[in-house]
């Protein structure tokens, strides 16, 4: 049984792709079925499992089997990743759910509200970075008063010139690694 749905996994929005439909009587999914249904690569599912975001049981033949609720957990993880939430934060959020149950719409609303201020802060930081990008000439001198990227408020320029500072850093790193110059 195959269903058709719009693709959003890199094949272009608006294109249709065939997604295998899993009969309701099947309560556990293989990693291939979970991958096909969720749009996540098998390697990504293994990675999510290694990070504690989803879980599986092993069959007597040592094959992974995922409960159907893993589909919603994977969707939750991928949605949170798309908006820039780190995996560690996602794992903490999923751990808050009672008995590791599947996230609901209310769970998503509560968690996404908690993440909102972090995302707003990141957006402001990126906007500042974008707005000051033209001020940076990228020479690495670290003494320009207007270099808000690598030297906000000309901290390094007050102490000494940047080129010497960078050379000193290179020598210090060489000594730390046992390199004698």
Automatic annotation (TrEMBL):
Pfam hit, one: MerR-DNA-bind
PROSITE patterns assigned = HTH_MERR_2
| CDD domains per the UniProt record, alphabetical | HTH_SoxR
What InterPro entries does this protein map onto?
A: DNA-bd_dom_put_sf, MerR-type_HTH_dom, MerR_fam, Redox-sen_tscrpt-act_SoxR, Tscrpt_reg_MerR_DNA-bd
Q: What region holds the HTH merR-type domain? A: 28-96
Per its UniProt entry, which superkingdom is the organism in?
Bacteria
Which keywords are on file for this protein? 2Fe-2S, DNA-binding, Iron, Iron-sulfur, Metal-binding, Transcription, Transcription regulation
Coiled-coil positions: none
NCBIfam families per the UniProt record, alphabetical: SoxR (TIGR01950)
| Name listed for the protein in its UniProt record | Redox-sensitive transcriptional activator SoxR
Source organism phylogeny:
Bacteria, Bacillati, Actinomycetota, Actinomycetes, Kitasatosporales
